[in-house]
Amino acid sequence: MNLHTLFSAHKSILIAAAIAFLMLLTRGSHVLTSVSLPDASLALLLIGGLYLRKAVWFALLVILATAIDFGAAAVDSLQAFCLTDGYWGMLPSYAVMWFAGIWLSKQANSLNAVKYAVAGIISTLAAFVISTQTYYIFSGRFPDSGIIESMQHGWEYLPSYLGFTAIYLVAFWITAKALAKLDITDKSLSGNIA
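The structure assignment produced for this chain is given below.
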């Protein structure tokens, strides 16, 4: 069995392991490392939807993200600030990213720059609105806050939320395109690039 065949047979496991490793490296306010890398979870979930597609992988990655968050809170109580009833709004935020990846996977050229950028931007904006609004409405930290009041808060986080996710998505896109040109991976991993 050559390396190419071995890689093809275990592609999903390898992709999931890489995503899990990167999630561990960038999440949890860096209780695992002394280096402070921005959270890559949104980009990783879009990439997961693109290549893994199955609901079981989504569930496992959400469980991992949640375990990292609660683990970080156990190590450092300041990390528990966002672990409120509003935290569960992350589930639909993650689902938006995952479904954007699935949508991309169904395109003839899933790494077409325009489709990839549009899917990344729209899904990240939707995830931002969902996560921010569920936090402000359901966290209990902002009493008497309805939809109108909650829509006035949190926008100062949009540039970093969108920016860091975009940086990770662009880095992945460049890497996937470069690997496809080098023909290091099989065609299904390179996003059906023609």
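Interim note for the steering committee: The CA atoms of residues 59 and 153 lie 30 Å apart. The chain has a mean pLDDT of 82.
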